[in-house]
Amino acid sequence: MKLTLTISEVKTQLKSLNHLDDPLVAELRTDTRKGVQSALVAFEKRIQKQIIAKEAFEKRFKYEKSFWSTGNQYVAGMDEVGRGPLAGPVVTAAVILDESFDLIGVTDSKLLTANEREHLYLKIIEEAIEVNICVKDRDFIDQHNIYHATQLAMIETIQGLQHQPTQIIVDAVPLDLNIPQTTLIKGDQKSISVAAASIVAKEYRDHLMDTYDKFYPGYDFAHNKGYGTAKHLAGLKQLGITPIHRMSFSPVPEYK
């Protein structure tokens, strides 16, 4: 069968395809037009990228699938955001997924754009069995130190779940709980549940810092999220500290 599609129509058709073995693809390979062959190359790159992403997704699901296979129905992925900033809270999140979860784009929140994170955040909230968040403010952090404050926030997050997990996958921070735990270094790159938790925690905290930027202008919180950037330090020097600055973090006390 000889194709009579224009190059524009070929591109439109290829956008709707998701398999390299589609009969249309085989037919297009015989088309000698340069525009068609360029469209095929772009199509093949897109499909290969999808295949790689799917394989990576399945690999990051291996811990959850292993636990599910041994009868652990509720596996909670845990992560935190905000241990390093000079200002703002630390936020922890726990996410419980099931085998139907299929958001291939879920990975370490630091590897995603702001638009990707926001889109995935909304989809995670929609598709997860349960999501829980805990926020600990400046006073709590200064009282307990950031590491212990993070641990306590994570414990509170788990205890607040309606579906109590029988297994926890946590990113690098061991928790004093009578629940079996798998502690992973860079867990948000190795576990889908932890990656989902990292996205939820980061999006929640980022929105908080955007709000704080309106209450405390001059520190560039909307962009630095409380980290010690040049603009943030310039704001501290000019305006002093705010109620969300951590007094236990250097150099914040210098600006009191």
Structure description:
This protein is α/β, with parallel strands linked by helices and 256 residues long. It has 2 domains: 7-60, no CATH class; 72-204, 2-Layer Sandwich (Nucleotidyltransferase, domain 5). 48% of the residues lie in helices and 12% in strands. It has helices at 7-15, 23-28, 34-60, 62-69, 114-127, 138-144, 146-159, 192-215, 221-224, 230-239, and strands at residues 75-81, 90-96, 130-136, 167-171, 181-184. Strands 3-2-1-4-5 form a 5-stranded mixed β-sheet. A hairpin with an 8-residue loop joins strand 1 (75-81) and strand 2. The longest helix is centred in the N-terminal third of the chain and has 27 residues, at 34-60. It is flat, with a radius of gyration of 23 Å. 36% of the residues are buried. Residues 73-256 form the RNase H type-2 domain. It comes from Paucilactobacillus nenjiangensis. This is Ribonuclease HII. Its EC number is 3.1.26.4.
Shape: flat
Kindly estimate the percentage of residues that lie in beta strands according to DSSP.
5-15%
Name of the level-1 CATH class of the largest domain: Alpha Beta
Distance between the termini: 79 Å
The major pleated sheet works out as: 5 strands, mixed
**Count of helical segments?**
10
Under CATH, the topology of the largest domain is which?
A: Nucleotidyltransferase, domain 5
Question: What are the secondary-structure elements, in order, as H or E?
Answer: HHHHEEHEHHEEHHH
Organism: Paucilactobacillus nenjiangensis
Catalytic activity: Endonucleolytic cleavage to 5'-phosphomonoester
Binding site for a divalent metal cation: 79-80, 171
Main location: cytoplasm
